[in-house]
Write a structure and sequence with these properties.
The protein is α/β, with parallel strands linked by helices. It is built from eleven helices and 14 strands.
């Protein structure tokens, strides 16, 4: 009876957004999916549901109730398929899963359920960056994407690539999207007034992976011999890479690094209130529409990055580093320009990113 009531409340033109990423904590992905929901709801004039995977459960984000229990992640998409059949969805938006058991079964799941929807979108956040993984993962990804392309060729599935680069595949429905971030972020403190303290505070917020390059950033801060005391805050969920970074910090007794794992929104805001410079990915080259860059911009923070991003490459509040960068050059850039940084300069770009590209409209 309860299942039937859930189905009945959905509008005829309803959309499902599903993410394998746990949305219970703070993350750029969660904010992005919430904005995606708002955009789709406004565009289609229909209801939109967000489901996500957490602790062997498929959970309704808004209601907080369990849609279904999953005995093992290996069977996630089998259970999701059965759950979808109980509801009256006619559009779907899936984020392609990361490596894992369910990752291997995802294309088969899509082939099974695509007929349930008028339109089926699949965002692929990891492609074309497969070269940044270890060799074993890179080989697996290469095989996977060959299978994926084969499965989706000549189908109604629309693949969304979050990349500024052009990709062309025959008989494959590809669209590019840009990342976007919540325009309601409050601005961090006014950086144009400068500081009385000699500290320069860097902050990075990320679900840590090796390609972020923060181990090298930490090492180069350790080599810095300038006049300013450097502080580097890392905000991350606890994972394999955060454990590795913490071991580096403890082994070298780097007191300038502070790692915050699994903290709440209020604590995050307090950290950003004391931040001078945001730190985006420093180990990735090529093009990227980074969520972190957009979050720092919405907060009115100057930031550093290593990748190309056409929206920020020519802005004064963004500093792009080469692979052989030194901390001194970043510090000098900040000291020379900090009185000219105004939160409004960075934040004005934010609303522009709060949309999908026109080619992906439902």
């Amino acid at each position: 009876m309860n299942k039937m009531m859930q189905s009945d409340v959905l509008a005829p033109h309803s959309t499902l957004i599903f993410s394998e990423v746990d949305l219970t904590g703070h993350s750029g992905i969660k904010d992005k999916l919430l904005l995606t929901r708002d955009y789709i709801s406004m565009s289609t004039k229909g209801s939109v549901k967000i489901w996500y995977f957490s602790k062997n459960r498929i959970v309704d984000y808004d209601e907080g109730n369990n849609i279904a229990k999953v005995g093992s992640s290996l069977f996630l998409y089998c259970v999701l398929r059965d759950s979808i059949e109980r509801f009256n969805f006619n559009r779907a938006y899936f984020r392609n899963p990361t490596l894992g058991f369910s990752f291997l079964l995802f294309p088969l799941f899509i082939l099974k359920v695509r007929r349930e929807f008028e339109k089926c979108y699949i965002e692929i956040p990891t492609w074309p960056f497969i070269y940044e993984f270890k060799l074993s993962k890179r080989i697996l990804y290469a095989i996977y994407f060959r299978v994926l392309i084969s499965c989706y060729r000549k189908s109604k599935v629309i693949l969304l690539l979050c990349s500024p680069n052009e990709f062309k595949y025959s008989n494959l429905n590809l669209s590019r999207i840009t990342n976007y971030i919540n325009p309601k972020y409050k601005l961090s403190r006014d950086t144009e007034t400068g500081k009385k303290s000699a500290n320069i505070v860097f902050t990075a917020i990320a679900n840590l992976e090796r390609w972020h390059g923060y181990d090298m950033f930490i090492e180069r801060i350790g080599q810095y011999r300038g006049d300013h005391r450097i502080v580097f805050n890392i905000i991350t969920p606890k994972n394999e890479e955060s454990v590795r970074i913490r071991s580096i910090v403890e082994r070298n007794r780097y007191s300038f690094v502070k790692i915050y794992e699994n903290i709440g929104r209020k604590k995050i805001e307090n950290i950003f209130d004391l931040t001078d410079i945001g730190v985006d990915t420093l180990g990735r080259s090529g093009g990227n529409f980074s969520l972190k860059s957009r979050e720092y911009a919405m907060r009115g923070l100057p930031f550093v990055k290593a990748h190309d991003d056409p929206y920020f490459d020519h802005e004064k509040y963004c500093y792009s580093v080469a692979s052989d960068y030194e901390i001194m050059e970043i510090v000098n850039w900040y000291i020379m320009n900090r009185h000219h940084f105004k939160p409004s300069h960075a934040a004005r770009v934010g609303p522009f990113h709060v949309r999908l590209l026109a080619s992906t409209r439902a």
